[in-house]
Amino acid sequence: MTYVVGAVAIIMSIVGPFLVLRGAGLTRKSAAEATRQAKETADRENKFRHREETMRHLRWAMELALSDNRHRATGGALALDALTKSPLVQTEDVQMVHAISVFVSEVAMARRRPGMEEDA
Predict the structure, then answer these.
(1) Structural domain boundaries of the chain?
(2) Which residues contact 120 (CB under 8 A, 6 or more apart)?
(3) Burial grade of 105 (CB within 10 A; 0-12, 13-18, 19 or more)
(4) Which of 120, 53, 62 is nearest to 90 (CA)?
(5) pTM score, two decimals?
(6) CA dist 21 to 7, 25, 60, 112, Å?
(7) Do residues 93 and 51 make contact, with C-beta atoms less than 8 angstroms apart?
(8) What's the pLDDT score for residue 120?
(9) pLDDT lower than 50: segments of the chain
(10) Are 85 and 98 within 8 A, CB to CB?
(11) Run of H or E including 91
């Protein structure tokens, strides 16, 4: 019996450090995966926030550009133009923002009349 205990002790003293190193490697790998997943989640949330902010700016600029007040309409048109060039707009939204900007500009030009209000 003493030989068995001695043999187990010798084997564990040899194998033990390798098991510890293997466990540390698995822990490091798990931590790296958790970090990667957290970064992907943060990137998706950030992309969503940027898109949401873009749509708020787009809506605001459209409302201004279609105003009967000449100064507000000019400000809205300038805001739409700036938004089409903004880094805030994501690649997949560029065409949409540009198309809406063109459409709003055309509608605003069609609505222009000599007696536009100065203040409203």
Answers:
(1) 2-111
(2) 67, 68, 69, 72
(3) middle
(4) 53
(5) 0.61
(6) 22, 6, 58, 76
(7) yes
(8) 46
(9) 118-120
(10) no
(11) none
What are the structure tokens assigned to 13, written together?
């003293």
Question: How far apart are alpha carbons 12 and 18 in whole angstroms?
Answer: 10
Side chain identity at residue 109, one-letter code:
M
Q: Which of 18, 92, 81, 10 is nearest to 51 (CA)?
A: 92
Instruction: Please tell me what DSSP assigns to residue 38.
Output: H
Question: Alpha-carbon distance 56 to 67, whole Å?
Answer: 17
DSSP 3-state assignment of 5? helix
Cβ proximity of 54 and 88 under 8 Å = yes
Taking only the tens place, the pLDDT of each residue in 37-55 is 989 998 889 888 888 998 9
Do 52 and 39 touch, CB atoms closer than 8 A?
no
10 Å Cβ neighbour count for 100? 18
Cβ atoms 42, 82 nearer than 8 A: no
What Cα–Cα distance (Å) separates residue 62 from each residue in 9, 76, 111? 78, 6, 14
